[in-house]
Structures are given as structure tokens and as C-alpha cells.
Amino acid sequence: MTPMVRPRFAQAALACIALFAQAGCAGSALAPTGTGSMAEQAALGRAALPQNVPVLGGCSVFPADNPWNTDISQSPVDPNSANYLADMNAGSTNLHPDFGSDPHYGIPVTLAPPKTPLVPMKFFAYPDQSDPGPYPFPKNTRIEGGKGAKGDRHALVVGEKSCKLYETYDTFYVGPGWRAANGAVFDLSSNKLRPDCWTSADAAGLPITPALVKYAEVQNGVIEHAMRFTVATTQAAYQHPATHYASSNQDPNEPPMGLRVRLKASFDTSSFTGESLVVLTALKKYGMFLADNGSDWYISGATDTRWNDNDLDQLKTVSASNFEVVKLGQLYTNC
Q: CA separation (Å) from 260 to 18, 111, 169, 223, 263?
């Protein structure tokens, strides 16, 4: 098939990964979400969940041994790391937090309570790579950028009881259901990947929601998962857990989808404070996956008016040259 190539958007449009994170609202159909503490989960009347695994809507976000939750701080460096970094313009680019206090940016996550009706879904661009409906999408499911937005129009819904994650791209309400370019369903209790060569709401076939930096977890002082970033050009290849590429470029030095980078252990974080320090600490332990084509070295996160933009701006001083590529596994190139 023709690879799914996403258009590049201006900086403002790319600064669109958001999640309204407050654990205290878990009872409403459009409850803001976040990584809750064990005490918060108990307060919500749910059984205790595994330690050191992110929690969303009362559900563990994948098992502890899932790639998203795996400590890669001691993993070997890829022998082609320098070439990948050069092609990702690491020497001339700094990190950019693609989130902040501006409430107009972001991909909000909708929590769907157990009694949320299942509604029909129609997929118009990639039906052969979509998980069929019905989905538990309320009529007022939040859309990236708002009801009348242009751009990616992602919709992310977590089924609270089923612990399934539903994500769509270019999403529109048509009543009683929804119309979208494609749709993907992830079982949050499983390590199962999408089929090889299948996309998702993200070009790499990865889930978006688990990768977002969330206000609640940062305020708790620790991020226990890998993050997500974009670069302008990628290779026509992917490695697991990615399952799809969005390029026709066969240059072996271009980064494949699913490439994972981490902040070097030697990088001095002693001058960083608050929210930025929490992010940088996690980038040393869990790193981040290349998930889509976009602006170089943009890190995706949840929007929340409580973010301290001055604090987050510290990340913009970190050169991407301080990262290294974790050794890749098998590359898939035959989609």
C-alpha cells in the first residue's frame, strides 16, 4: 500500500498534543485524565494496580514489561546512532515541549464510563487497516483542536471498565456515530501490537495516549513511561513496537519509525528544576519513540493551564545532540 504520509503543519498546529489531567473527575463522560497515585485509585473505588506502571481511567497502561514501560537506561547504543542523529538535525536543534498552559492546543482524552453506548464508526481513508466499530464514543467526545478544527483531529477514548484505548485520526461526528480516516483499538492489559504494516491514529502504528507527558504525573515527581517525538524526515522502515512507516525514503541513515532515543546518562541536569527536571530524568530512563513526521525533536505532552511555561522552557535549552539512539532490532521495510 501507499505509506500514510502526514502533512507538516506550522509550529502552532504541531503544538497539539494535550490531555486534561485531573484524577478527581473520573465519574463524568468527559472526565479529564491523568496518571493517578495509588491513593487516588483507591478513592475511585478500584482495586490496587501494579506499582510503577502508568494509570489512566483506573487502568494500567500496558503491562510492566511493555516497551512503553521498560527501563532502557542500560541498553546498548546503536552502532549507527551518530548517522541517525545527524539526519535528524540533532546538532542544530534543541528539544521543544509541544505542550504548555495554552488551552487551545492538545489532544484531549475522553474517559468512557462502562455504560457509554457503542456507536457505529465509518473509516474513509484506511478502512483495511482499522479496527471496526462500534466504539464507545460519546456525542461530545473531545477532538484535537476543537469541534471546528482543521489538522489531525485526533480523538482518544479510554474505556474505563474494558481498559481498551480507542484512537482515531481526522475524526468527525456524523450522528449517531463517527466518521474518521482510520481507527485503532489497543487492549491496555496486553502487549499485543497492531498487525505489521498497519497504521494507527499515529503514522507509526503506535498508540498516542500512553506517550503523552501528563501534568499529574509530573507533579507526582516521576514519569514512568517512554515519550513520543517527531522529526521532519523518516525512513521507509519501522521497528517494533511500531508497525508502519510513512515515507518512501530508503536512505539507511534516515531514522525508521519506532526508533528510540534516550538522553545520555552523562548529561548534567543539576541546573534544571521542577517540571523540566522530571521530564529529563524520564528521558534518561525511558527515552522516547519516533512516532510521526513533523517538526524536529518536538516532544508530545498534555496541555493543562497549570503548566509552568517558564519552567518547561528550560527544555528548549537542551540540544538534541545530547541524545543517543538505543540499539535497533529488526527493521521491516516491505509494506
A: 22, 29, 23, 17, 10
